[in-house]
Amino acid sequence: MNVLLLTLSLLFAAPQDTTVSDSTLLALCEGLRVADVVDAMDVVGLRNVGLVDTRIQPLWRDLEDFRHRFCGIALTVRYVPTNKIVPNPIPEEAFDAWSGRWYNELSPEPFVDLIRPGTVIVIDASGNGDTGSIGSYNSLLWYARGARGIVTTGSVRDTDEIIKQQIPLYMDPLQRGRGIRPGRNELESVNRPVEIGGALVRPGDVIVADGDGVVVVPREHAARVFRLARRVLEADKQGRRQLYEQLGLPLDKTVQQ
Fold this sequence. Notes:
The protein is of the alpha/beta class and 257 residues long. The protein has helices spanning 3-11, 22-29, 34-43, 92-105, 136-145, 159-165, 219-247; strands at 57-58, 70-81, 119-124, 149-152, 169-171, 185-190, 194-196, 199-201, 206-210, 213-217. The chain contains seven helices and ten strands. The strands form two sheets. Strands 1, 2, 3, 4, 5, 6, 9 and 10 form an eight-stranded mixed β-sheet that branches. A two-stranded antiparallel ribbon has the order 7-8.
């Protein structure tokens, strides 16, 4: 094999670390910042890969305990706008039955049974319009099932309650969806590749989110990326801790080992 063929074979070799468990990846990414992960992605050659558009940002921030931050394993969902004719108006006595059928048959949430501790629910709902696909009840239900957070391109309603409930949610702040899903959208797929803010997300990829935004780490590279990112974080902590001490600042959790 000549040098060119050898180089190409290495470039296009099968991804490594595909068998690393969810629990191992969750332990490796715990406490890492988006910036640390992006720096590590540069090292492994994933420059500008997985960077979600900065319009997708946290609905709320906790600057004491950083509860808005998370890392977790992607469970992907896609909703699309409907093209069904909707009777309008619907008689009041028939509305509940009609909307119930829509929720059950066209726009359900079958992914709920797939949620595990450490899951991040990633919802591609571009074109959702003024549709509240995520609200205070279903987001709390997903959180109770073990979801660490939610990332979506779609619309969200009940935002006051979601903030009050402290459910980590990342979205475009201009996407406030006030209507229910019936008559507006349909479920297209669960656990298929989706696009979120210009980034590819596959089921099982690792999502890291904080005040800087969201980054998607391809699962086959995640273990190496997180080990490199840990070195970046520890070096940053050490350097800033020295400056804290020089300035007489109390050591907060961002500089503690």
